[in-house]
Amino acid sequence: MSPKLFSSRARVAARLTAPSSIITAQASPFIRNFATASSVSPTSRNHRVVVVGGGSAGLSISHQLLRSGKFVQGDIAVIDPAEWHHYQPGWTLVGGGLKTKEELRRPLSSLIDPKINFYHDTVGAFSPEDNSVMLGNGDKLNYEQLVVAPGVSISYGSVKGLPEALADKHSLVSSIYGYDHCDKVFRTVQRLQKGRAIFTQPAGVIKCAGAPQKIMWLALDHWKRAGLYDPSGSGIQISFATGLPVMFGVPKYSAALEQLRKERGVEGLFQHDLVAVEGNTATFARPNGQEQVTKQFDLLHVVPKMGPHAFVKNSALANQAGYVDVDDGTTRHNKYPNVWSAGDASSLPTSKTAAAITAEAPVLVRNLLQSLEGKEPDAVYDGYTSCPLLTEYGKVILAEFKYNGEPKETFGNWFGIDQAAPRRAFYHLKKDFFPWVYYNSMVTGRWGGPNIVPGWRSRNNS
């Protein structure tokens, strides 16, 4: 039985009187028109909904809940230790020299509505049996409903020698996966004049499974425009070393990308999983007990392995793989009916992208609200996700699909367009529209998902 919650008046009073350390937002024309949220003392530690994570999923869900009009100040709490919130899909654009990493981040506190309590702390432990979350500082938050959406952890140490190679400013080893390193990528691309360039993708789950080759296609186009690359193999040679047996997990788009690979003279090293970097030598594991393979390189772009955070993986909420164990359709936990999850931390069997969250969040919010009213969840997530695959400067394949790799194409349905064909219009969606709509609509809770058209705004939003 959960502890008795404060009355609305008591919650407001506690929120106004609790000591707080104000997190100052940088002045920016892009920061939403919120008063800067405060990091609050857990004096007021009873909430109707606690959301773990201030990333794409956590902010979208918490603000959609707030915009439902069913919560007052202090009813909703967000927990996250981060100072900054990053538009991570834009790191590919940074790697291609199209944007700076600084323009794609905002102070996290500036993105959280002041009606939401913001706990600027880590999670120590979950106690779903007594409806509470222990913070890293030892304090406890009690909840009626819990949303777990902290994303996943990037393990740079999963590749031996990678942390040292990334830190070496003189090395031609880089990665778009991480704020600290994504701007190194384009510098290495510009420096390479000839030799072997290898772009890797690990076996297993990663954020945006198309990103490892997006940066490859941009680099190839850069070298082609500079007269350093042609498909005959003179000048620069390019290899795509992936732990997967195919270019992409959805057959329709994989076929299109395989055709591009062959046309552009890119070597395909399939089922090659990078395990070590030493000097200019990359070592790859091979499946079924085959011997490891070493390759020499002059440029290496690395995608590290990724996985659930330890505080999720080691909790009662996790499945065997370490992800929050939720129903594929309702996003509700399979054991604890007042626990929910979306985004990268969830067990939802779809690609881990920001686009997936646009479809997951409205389903979760609807079903959580139903649960609060004592009703059964009636919204169903179909696995929708999207991956805008940059194939060159000015062209994008807009992959959209749902569970079982079945295409679910917005523009194909509307206009009969084949989205597996690279198009300039899709490029401007990726480069210009999506970053804008992310900060102005998605994380503010105004984005109602890909099924809400026209305008892509939720019915409940003002």
From TrEMBL:
Transmembrane region(s): none
Record-level GO cellular component terms: mitochondrion
Pfam families, per the entry: Pyr_redox_2 (PF07992)
Organism domain of life: Eukaryota
Molecular function terms from GO: FAD binding; sulfide:quinone oxidoreductase activity
One GO BP annotation of this record: sulfide oxidation, using sulfide:quinone oxidoreductase
FAD/NAD(P)-binding domain location: 48-166
InterPro entries: FAD/NAD-bd_sf, FAD/NAD-binding_dom, Sulphide_quinone_reductase
The protein's name in its UniProt record: Sulfide:quinone oxidoreductase, mitochondrial
Provenance organism: Tolypocladium ophioglossoides (strain CBS 100239)
